[in-house]
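Many introductory courses stop at the sequence. We go one step further.
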Amino acid sequence: MKFGVFDIETAPRSREEVLACAPVFKAPANYKDPEKIAAAIKEQEDEFVARAALCASTGRVVAIGIRTDGVTTILGDEDGERPMLKLFWRWVEDNVRQGRAIIGFNIARFDVPFLIRRSWAVGVRPPSGIVGAYGKLNSAFIDLMQEWQCGDRSATISLARVCALFGLPGKNGNGKDFAALWAENRPAAEEYLLNDIMITTRVAERMLGVVDAEKPTLTLDGDY
């Protein structure tokens, strides 16, 4: 079966927006010095902001890599998050109409929920039925992480480790650095994302039988 591959990269929203979603931070009860109290609270705020890109309420999508028929494209946030998300869901629908599965790594736990939640946040309607009962992804999507687990949810593994196991080239950077790289060195950021798409494609090809799933189905009712 032919298939499409995707991967997303995220970044924190503005510090003000992130902290608006933060819990109330407090210094330890034994702190009495106002400067120490302020420093302790500031440290907690900084830690919260540092993790902001991993949550749809405090992060945003800055880039999506998509690959179909040997052609990889990067959707960026130059025109804003909303147009990028609309283009992505249109790509999903186009692939489903042509009988292609949509493949990614750890997408059930991170990418797909993040994309759906950010779509809701910016007023984009994703296709219906992507996530079913008990968080199960629609058959239009194949999560290579879940396939690796073979039903054992505790058997997590990184994409880099899978590549090493299969003797494939691995990642060429760290995703936690992507937001800064995207802002400061766009070509390097794009190269990182392109590599992630390529190694995900290679892993899918090596996991024999995974992409031979039944023809994907999805309610195609978006407004893109």
